[in-house]
From TrEMBL:
UniProt KW keywords: Oxidoreductase
Recorded superkingdom: Bacteria
Location of the region described as Disordered in the Swiss-Prot/TrEMBL record: 242-368
Residue ranges with Low complexity bias: 344-354
Keyword Oxidoreductase annotated: yes
GO MF, one annotated term: oxidoreductase activity
Annotated SUPFAM superfamilies: NAD(P)-binding Rossmann-fold domains
Official protein name in the record: Short-chain dehydrogenase
Length: 368
């Protein structure tokens, strides 16, 4: 009689695998953190199906837990014929809203534990010339979904690559990519049923039945529901921006407001005097060193937009008409005749604003 080792077996997809394999007559090694629930599950499976169900308490986000399961997989006196790496967890929060310790724990469980257990199990299976590994990933592997999606994408790529390398060894490997399944997984992650459309929810027992059929056919990738097969196919063709928009909304809360008031990206409000007008030679009518009442000088203040002596009113320039009065000519600075120039309004201090990266350009165009 063959033996299957299943991780994360007390609920959800893991429990469905345990029930189906026990019904098919396979002995089991059940792995999870909750010893009480493990023993209750083992007793129930033994009573209903007459199979042996061993219990192995281990936390696969810790090195000691991974090492304990590795030791069991390498036991040649009681070999494991099928390994189901199912343990995992999710979260509904967004990047930077999740503690970094939780992110690292997720990578430890979804990537390192899968790598080490697959290597331990597949190595022993290859020596015997038979065996199989099912690594539970997710359709999130095909969508931008933060650390969770990235870790599941790694599971898919790793499993398919290993399946190719071991194709002639008698060891089969398959990545299973379910969608939203009605289990404790989403409840623990804080994902409410109402945040996901009803048509996207899957039944775990039907999912496992379809997955085992794909495994028997020798597939290295199983997306057992036609709805999610269509979605994953579209994901390969759709623009990444569209995928990001969809992924960021389904099963996740609305993003928190940016403390700076920006809607997109990082664009903090400018200081009150950030773009205040600065005095320069274009903003005053008197040269440096000349003040009101000076020899030939006009009163300080913004200029009217014309140069003194270039067709300006003699009274406003404070000079004799015959001294500086000349015929109008082109302003060398602007290429315009003085009578066509207009006074520039003084710059105003920019008020705090909401900013966007949609209109790239100068700071004035970025923030409106």
């Amino acid at each position: 009689m063959t033996t299957a080792l299943i991780t994360g077996t007390t609920a959800g997809i893991g429990a469905a695998f345990a029930g189906r394999l026990a019904a098919d007559g396979h002995n089991l090694v059940l792995v999870a953190r909750d010893e009480k629930r493990l023993r209750e599950q083992a007793a129930d499976l033994h009573d209903r199906h007459g199979v042996e169900a061993d219990v192995l308490v281990a936390d696969l986000s810790e090195d000691d837990g991974i090492a304990a399961v590795e030791t069991r997989l390498k036991d040649r006196t009681h070999p494991v014929d099928l390994l189901v790496n199912n343990a995992g967890f999710g979260n509904r929060a967004r990047y930077l809203e999740v503690p970094i310790a939780d992110e690292l724990r997720m990578l430890k469980l979804h990537c390192e534990a899968v790598l080490r257990l697959t290597s331990a199990g597949a190595g022993t299976m290859r020596d015997r010339g038979r065996g199989g590994v099912i690594n539970v990933a997710s359709v999130a592997a095909f969508f931008p979904r933060g650390t969770y999606g990235a870790s599941k994408a790694w599971v898919v790529q790793f499993t398919q690559g290993a399946a190719k390398d071991l194709a002639s060894s008698g060891v089969r490997l398959m990545a299973l990519c379910p969608g939203f399944v009605r289990t404790e997984f989403h409840a623990r992650a804080g994902i409410k049923d109402t945040s996901v459309p009803s048509w996207m929810w899957l039944d775990p027992d039907r999912l496992v039945t379809a997955a085992l059929k794909d495994f028997a056919r020798g597939k290295s990738l199983s997306i057992p529901d036609p709805r999610y097969k269509a979605m994953s196919s579209l994901a390969k063709l759709a623009p990444r921006s569209a995928l990001s928009s969809i992924s960021s909304k389904v099963g996740r809360p609305r993003p928190r407001g940016n403390p700076s008031g920006a809607r997109f990206g990082f664009c903090p409000p400018p200081a009150a005097d950030a773009w205040a007008p600065k005095t320069n030679r274009h903003d005053t009518g008197t040269p440096p060193g000349r003040g009101p009442g000076g020899a030939g000088g006009a009163a300080s203040g913004p200029r009217s937009g014309t140069r003194q002596g270039l067709g300006a009113d003699p009274a406003s320039s404070g000079r004799e008409p015959g001294v500086q009065g000349r015929s109008p000519r082109v302003d060398r600075g602007r290429g315009l005749r003085p009578e066509h120039t207009k006074a520039r309004p003084p710059l105003r201090a920019a008020a705090p604003s909401r900013c966007s990266w949609q209109n790239a350009g100068t700071p004035e165009r970025q923030c409106a």
